[in-house]
Amino acid sequence: MHVAVLGAGSWGTAVAGVLAHRADSVGLWCRREELAAQVRATGSNEAYLPGVPLSPRIAAGSEFAAVVAGASFVVLAVPLQQLRSRLSQWAGEFPAVPVVNLAKGVEAATGEFGTEIVREVLDVPHVLALSGPNLAAEIARGQPAATVVAGTDLAVAQEVAEAFTTPVFHAHAVTDVVGVDVAGAFKNVVALAVGMVEGAGLGANARAAVLTLGLSEMAALGCRLGASTSTFLGLAGAGDLVATSTSSLSRNHRVGVALGEGLPLPAAVQRAGGTAEGVATAPALLRRDADLPFVRDVVAVLEGDVSPVQAVSRLLSAS
Ligand SMILES: NC(=O)C1=CN([C@@H]2O[C@H](COP(=O)(O)OP(=O)(O)OC[C@H]3O[C@@H](n4cnc5c(N)ncnc54)[C@H](O)[C@@H]3O)[C@@H](O)[C@H]2O)C=CC1
Ligand SMILES: O=C(CO)COP(=O)(O)O
C-alpha cells in the first residue's frame, strides 16, 4: 500500500511516520523542494520535527503528481486557512481516492469546516477527518495516543483507521463527521482562553471553569449543526480539548498564555511559533453561528477590545 501526506509541517510529518508502520511507502509532499531535499538527505524534518529520525519508507518530494501516484488514500496536512487555495491548484489532477483531512479550524472567508472545503473543491469518493488528542511532538516520539477517523461510510472509515493504527497509536472509526469537525475547530478557541487564564495567573478553579464552559458551548454548537452529543464526550471532543488546553506543546495554548501575560496578539503569535488555528477560527466561528458568547469573549481579547482578565470574568459570570 502507498499513501500520500500533503503538507510536511509538524503534524503531516508525524502522521507520515505513523502511516509508515503499515504502508509500504508514504509520499510526503513538501511545499518547498529545499525542505524535501533536506528530508531526503538527513532522514529527518529539521524545520518542523528536529532530531526525529523518519522511517526509510517515507519519500519526501515537492512534485504533487509523483507523491500521490498510486496512493490508496491521500492525507491533507495543510493549515485550514490555506486549504482551499492549495486544493484548487491540485483539483484537476487529484486522484479519485478517499481523502483524510487533518486541519482543525474554520475558514475565515466562508465559516466552513475542513471537510466542507474539501468536498466543495475536490471530486473524490470519500472525505474523512482524523482528529483527537494528538500533539505532534509526542506522537513523533512514539508516545501512546488515540484518535478518531470520521467518515459517513463506516466501512471506509474503518479501513482508513486500520491503516493509521500502530501498537501505540490507536485510531477508531466513527461516522459523526460534523461533530469531529466542530470539536477540532472549537477546541483551539478554548485552548486560547485557558491559556489566557494561565498566563494571567488566575488559578486552577478559573481554568477548570473556562475549559468546562468551552466544552459546553462546543457541544451546543455541534448539536445545532446536527452532530451527536457523544462526540463531544469522546476523544475528538473532551479528549482533544483537554490535551490542547493544558499542554505547553499546543501552539493555541501558548498564544493564550502570551496574551494572558499581556503581550499583544502579533507578539503572542510570534512567540508561540507554528500554526495556531484558533486565532483565525474564533471570528470565523461567529460568522457561522452568532450565538456563541464564549467565542465572542475570546474574539474581544484577540481584537484588543477587552483584557484577558476582563474576558475571563465575563465568561464566568455568564455561566
Ligand atoms: N501539530 C500538531 O500537533 C497538530 C496539528 N493539527 C492540525 O494540522 C494542521 C497543520 O498543522 P501543523 O502541521 O502543526 O503546522 P505547522 O505550523 O507545523 O506546519 C505548517 C505546514 O503547512 C505548510 N503550508 C503553509 N502554507 C501552505 C500552503 N499555502 N499550501 C500548502 N502548505 C502550506 C507549511 O509549509 C508547513 O509544512 C493544522 O490545521 C493543525 O491544527 C492537528 C493535530 C495535531
Ligand atoms: O490539535 C492539536 C493537538 O490535538 C495541536 O494543537 P495546536 O495546534 O494548538 O498545537
Q: If you consult CATH, what is the topology of the largest domain?
A: Rossmann fold
Shape: globular
Average pLDDT over all residues? 98
What small molecules are bound in this structure? 1,4-dihydronicotinamide adenine dinucleotide, 1,3-dihydroxyacetonephosphate
In total, the number of domains comes to 2
Helix count, per DSSP?
Answer: 16
Q: Architecture of the largest domain in CATH?
A: 3-Layer(aba) Sandwich
* Share in β-strands: 5-15%
Task: Describe the main β-sheet briefly.
Answer: 8 strands, mixed
Q: Percent helix among the residues?
A: 40-55%
Q: What's the layout of helices and strands?
A:
Layout: E1 2-6, H1 10-19, E2 25-29, H2 33-42, E3 58-61, H3 64-68, E4 71-76, H4 80-90, E5 99-101, H5 114-121, E6 127-131, H6 136-140, E7 145-150, H7 154-164, E8 169-174, H8 177-199, H9 204-224, H10 229-232, H11 235-246, H12 251-260, H13 265-272, H14 278-288, H15 293-302, H16 308-318
Parallel strand pairs: 1-2, 1-4, 2-3, 4-5, 5-6, 7-8
Antiparallel strand pairs: 6-7
Helix pairs in contact: 4-5, 8-9, 8-11, 8-12, 8-14, 9-11, 12-13, 14-15, 15-16
Domain Glycerol-3-phosphate dehydrogenase NAD-dependent C-terminal: 176-312
Function: Catalyzes the reduction of the glycolytic intermediate dihydroxyacetone phosphate (DHAP) to sn-glycerol 3-phosphate (G3P), the key precursor for phospholipid synthesis.
Pfam family, one: NAD_Gly3P_dh_N
